[in-house]
From TrEMBL:
CC cofactor: Zn(2+)
Natural source organism: Sedimentibacter acidaminivorans
Pfam families: Peptidase_M20 (PF01546)
Name used for this protein in its record: Arginine utilization protein RocB
Amino acid sequence: MKESNNIINMLKFFVSIQSDTHTEMEIDIENAILKHISNIPYFDTTGNYGMEKIPTDDLGRSIVWALKKGSSDKTIILLNHHDVVDVNDYGNLKNIAHDTESIEKNLKNIKLSEEITTDLLSEEWIFGRGTADMKGGMCIQLKVLEDFSEDNKCDVNILFLSVPDEETLSVGMRHAGILLKNLEEKYHLKYSLIINSEPHSREDKNIPVIYEGSVGKTMITVYVRGVKSHIGEIFNGFNPNLILSKIICNTEINSELCDRDLGEIAPPPSWSFARDFKECYDASIPESAGGFLSFLTLTKTPKDILSIMKKICADSLLESMESYNKNADIFYGDSEHRCSFPINVKLYDEFLSDAIKNDKDKVENVLEKIYARISESIKDGKISMPESNFEIIKEIMNFTQYSGPTVVIAISPPYYPHISNDKFEHLDAKVREVSNSLNEINLLLYGSNIKKKHYFMGISDLSYAALQNYEATVPYIKNNMPLWNYDLYSIPFETINSLSIPVVNIGPWGKDLHKFTERVYIKDLNTNTYTLINELIKKLFS
């Protein structure tokens, strides 16, 4: 299959290159993107493109960039990611998940929903892994870049960035801030706007949706230590599963905890992982349990969420004790066997501080050893970053003097700040009118309005374009994220804060992201989305 200037053919080519997130396969598509750019005459002549290797990445992945210089310092960034999720959901079709024609042919032999079948037979959609999320958007941006490379009259600079790892830990975009600073200095750029092209869902076929911001994500780790006992003497102990289950019940899809802003609402918190840490069976209750849950945010900061979780965990521990005492009264027929444990609920920085006060030298020595071990385990894929928090807390717990059940609350990678153009104190007048400009363009060309939303709810790399709550974010992340101080995970907060770039997401219509029926709307690829981006740049900056 050969590459083509046609967006559809380009998409089929790049989809055929498997680029599973957080694997070395991402390097294959980085090389393919770089080669594609090198074949564009402007870049072949000027050499204004390259690959920025991410120094902290053990897989050797890179950011691919290309810059079309204009006559001013105003710069539009075209941002996309080239990694995709794996194909395990395709089952026995996974070997053809990257072949758009074969997957469409084979899907016709499977009983699917009416909507999917209709789309499949309409020939208005391209199916396959990564077609929507987000190689479709990437190919649109490559074509926009190519078009502007042939325009010698355009004042604005066009900077194309394709990053790895968006689907995992966003290592690409977290490093992109540093690259942007270097390019800003080298080429005398002034960043006006980031245009991302993540896919969107829509209610009306003819009304595209754009976003002037992106939801944030704060992942909370909860570690619960109980009081171990034999199950035959259950009231001599305290099961950490009881406490954890209360915490889960008080948080899981609790819509009262949803973040709200500008008439929009983020989904409620949800747990990704929860279990006890008993390694093998015996006739005793577990010593500890834990899990992690995600809060999607529009306005709430890490400071807010830690405060919310501390209260919920304290209330849940109290509920657990009340349940314990109620059942002890029933079992023994008196109130003499009630528990009277203190309410030990600690944020990680409080917990670590208590341990250090007891034995600073030993705690520091143990931490050094455990971080070295965890670092290797993470590199080898034996443990995830969120799970590693449990090991750290378990080791430090040995140096505390807490009696009774204890809950420790920490923050786990990945962290995504929320961002909204409405929260910028100073915004260029033309950028402030982005949505209105897009609406005018769409109305003129296609006879319909667009729908503006303030927050893209799919979580995106736009989170790292600016930092809008510095004081309520940075100290709380640094002090309560166990992996932070040993350089296993970091975010260049100061760089992001200094860049502070407004954003907009203009992407194609996509359906069933991360599912085997993933697909992207052809009309958006060839005309609608592609034209919207082109015309917006001209309207605002040429």
